[in-house]
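#structure-requests
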Amino acid sequence: MGNNMATHNKYKSFMFFIRKFKVIEPDPPQELEEAFSKFTGGGSHMSVEQLHRFMVEHQGEEHHSLSDSEKVFERILQERKTCQETVKIDHSTEHEITLDELFRFLLHNDFSGPLKTQVHHDMGAPLSHYFIYTGHNSYLKGNQLSSDCSEEPIIEALKRGVRVIELDLWPTCNKDDIKVDHGWTFTNPVSVVKCLECIKEYAFVASPYPVIITIEDHLTTDLRAKFAEMVTQIFGEVLYYPGEECCLTEFPSPESLKNRVIISTKPPRERFQSNQIKDNSNCSILNESESSEEESFGNASPNSSRNEAETEDTNGSDRDEGSISASEYDHKPFLECSPDYKRIITIHNTKLKGCLKDKLRTEGEVRRLSWSENTLEKASESHGADILRFTQKNILRVYPSAMRVKSTNFKPHIGWMYGAQMVAFNMQGHGKSLWLMQGMFRANGGCGYVKKPQILMQKHQFDNEYDPTRIESMKKTLKVKVYMGHGWSSDFSPTHFDKCSPPDFFTKIRIIGMPGDVAKNKTKVIMDNWFPVWNEEFEFCLSVPELAMLMIQVKDKDQGKDDFAGQTCLPVSELKHGFRSVPLYDKKGEKFKSVKLLMRFQFE
C-alpha cells in the first residue's frame, strides 16, 4: 500500500495478442496526508498520543482510550516485523508509525469499520419499542410452493442474528403427530422436534436477546396439548411465559428476556359447539377461515374484498396465525383448548371485531396483529396515525404477499415508517429489499433489536398529524466521500469481470428511507483497474436520518448488463465519522474476504 510497487496482469485479446496492465496499489488519500500532518505537527511519524488525538478528534471515537491506541500500536508494530517489505527497522522510530502504516490500519475493517460493534441502545424498554429481525416461513429452503422444509434455514437465520422464527404447524397424515409445513402447497415437511431442537441449540449464538417463535396453528386440540408438552420439555427454563392468569398491559423488555424463548400465536377459543359451527357454516367458518389479515378499505364492495383475500391465500397458508382449521371440526360435541397450550403463549395475536379503527384500539391487554404487505399499504392510506398509535404499545407483524412465490421480499420501509416491529422477510432469498433488512440489523451491534426512533413514539392527538410522505424539515446533511476500493484482485480471478482487461469499476450510492429522503448518485467509471480511486463526495439532505439507509453498490461497467462487484447497506444514524473501511458483501449477504471501500462520513 502506498509504495507504488507494481505487478502486471496479462490478458489475451483478439485470440493471440497479449495485453499487459499494470496493477498498482494506491497511495493514501490527500485528506489522510493532511490529517496525518496536522496531528504530527508536520512530522513523518505518529506517536501513540498523537494517534489517540487523531482517533478522538478526527474519527469521532469519543470512547477511544489511550490504552486502545496502545493496542493498535502493538498490532501495527507486529505487522511491521512480519512484513516482507521491511528489511531494516529504524530503531529511533520503533514506537512510532508512518503514514503508510496508518493508511493500512484504516483499511482494516475490524479496527475502523463504519458501525459500532457493541450493543448501545437502551434495551430496557418494552418489546413494542423495537424493530425486531423477523423471518417469514423460516423453515423453507427455497420458493414458497415446492421447496423442501428443513431446520437448516432456521439455523442459518439464527446465526445471522434473526430473532423471530416462524413455524407453520400441521397434523401429520395419521393426525397423531405434528409436522412443520407450508400448507396447501407441494413443499416437503420437516419434524417439529427438529425445528425446536435447532432453535434451542442456535438461539443465542449471534445474540443473547430473546428469540420469538411465531406459530401458525392448524392443530387439533390434542396436538396443541402435545406441542405445549414438547416446547416445555425441549426448552425447559429457557421458555418464558407470564403465567396463566396474567394479562400483559405492557410487554417485557429485551433486557429482561435475555437468553429466553417466547411463543406468539393466536390463543384458541376456550370452548364452542360443533353443531353451531355446522349451522353457521356460511358465516362463522368463512369469517374465521378466510384471510383475517385482509381488511376491506374505502368503498370496496364485499365481493372485491373477498377476492383480494382469496388472492392472498392462494399459494400458501399465511393467514392470521391460529385461525380455526378444518382439522378442528371433528364430531366431538365440544372442543376445548389445552390449558397448557394457552399458558405458554406470551404474545397474543388477537384481532378485535369492528371497523379498522376499532381493530387498532390500544386500550387494555397488549397484543399483536399480523397483516400482509398489501393490507398495510391499504390501511396506511386512511389510518396511518391509528397504525402508528397501535405500534407504540402493541406489535404489528407484516408479511410478504402470497403472490411472492419465488420468496422475494417487499420494501421494508413500508412497515418501518409506521412503527411495525416485525417486518417478516424470506431470508432464503436475495435482492435489494433483503440487503436493506440485513443493513438495518447491523445496527446496535447486530443484536437483532433496534430501538425505534423518537418520531415513531411521539403521541399524536389528531389523525392528520403523522404523514411520512409530508415530512419536510431537514435535520441533517450527510456527506459521503468514496476514496477507493481494493480486495477484488484477492477474491476474484483475473478474468472474472472481463476476459480481455481488468474491470471498470464504479460505485452507486443511494439513500432509502422516508419518501422525501430518497436520493441516488454514482461515481465516474475507473477503467482497467483492480484498485479504483474515485475521490468523489456526495451530499444528502435528510429529514428522518433515523430511518434512512445508505445503500452502496459497486459494479463493473459493461456494454450490456453491468457486473455485480459487491454491496452493503448501512443505517445512517449509526455511521461513524471520519475515514472508514467499509466491507462489501455478495448478493446473498455473505461478506467478501478482502473487498472493501475506503470512505469518509460527515454530518452537518
